[in-house]
Amino acid sequence: MTVTTTALDIDRLIDDPDTRIIVCCGSGGVGKTTTAAALALRAAERGRQTVVLTIDPARRLAQALGLRELGNQPRQVQIEGFEPKGELWAMMLDMRRTFDDMVRAHAGPERAEQLLANPFYQTISTSFSGTQEYMAMEKLGQLAATGEWDLIIVDTPPSRSALDFLDAPTRLSAALDGRMIRLLTAPAKAGGWGLRKVVTAGFSMFAKAVSTIIGGQLLADASAFMQAFDSMFGGFRERARKTAELLRSRGTSFLVVAAPEPDALREASYFVERLSDENMPLAGLVANRTHPVLADLSATAAMSAAEKVESSAPLATAVLRLHADRVALAARENRLLARFTKAHPEVPIVRVPALPSDVHDVGGLRDIGDRLAGDQDT
């Protein structure tokens, strides 16, 4: 199957001063965090003031950058022998701390302390559906608002969660807006009857979301939280709206990262379609960990040659059979990527050959960066 693809020029993307945000998304285990870090390192080396934000709790990014840990505020990366034209900063999202900071920014000092001490708040700030994705967007908005970096690279959760990343403002706003606020503020306004009404009509609606809080104190805590939160909800929602607009702006580009495997490419295809539906700016697909053929010898010819020298040259036989397996693997990957391209002919692709081992340091990240920007033939 021969399908013409458009090459994704990574250096052109990261060198473009109009590119201010790159969001890396894809299913789990495809090298998304490594791709984000390699892009950030390469961009800094080429003169961009770059910060990379990871939502990956595995801390692989910190390890690869030679840091013991990353916090909720950007930390400049200083590496021996690393003299970039720009700067490289890195951070890892702390969901609870980001939520706390947002409360302090939108509420007065007294009200903020009431909210932060509320047991209901302490639950939803870490476990409410959509909180992590919303706080990732909040942190992205904060980084963009400072103007300290001219390129922000975001490493998102695995692809279904990355879709939640797009939905987070709407979902969390809807959960904390309208009827729920009126329901939970009713007990304090209506006395005991209001409390009984909430227990009857509203308990099942939010009990699952706050399953770690039990007993009669739940409703009182929830009511107190909502009354305090109601006054700052407008700012909360407005920030979400602005960040959603930021994701749709000309300065933002989405990179979908996928391995040349059926499940990963199926997720990539789904995400490409969703980005198109949402009018999100897609830069292209990174086909990660591919296995290009290293010699112009067909699998059939390699196996035939292996049979001829099997008794006299065991090492040559092993190499020829290994090459035949590699040709078969490359052909399978080509078919899968051709199928993706046939479905999405407008999506540029760059293939990144697999490294012989996992990336653990800056040298490995540089190698990935070189491969991202290397031979673009697909």
TrEMBL record:
InterPro entries (alphabetical): ArsA/GET3_ATPase-like, ATPase_ArsA/GET3, P-loop_NTPase
GO molecular function (one): ATP binding
Domain ArsA/GET3 Anion-transporting ATPase-like as annotated: residue spans: 19-292
PANTHER family, sorted: ANION TRANSPORTER ATPASE-RELATED, ARSENICAL PUMP-DRIVING ATPASE ARSENITE-TRANSLOCATING ATPASE
Name of protein: ArsA family ATPase
Organism: Amycolatopsis rhizosphaerae
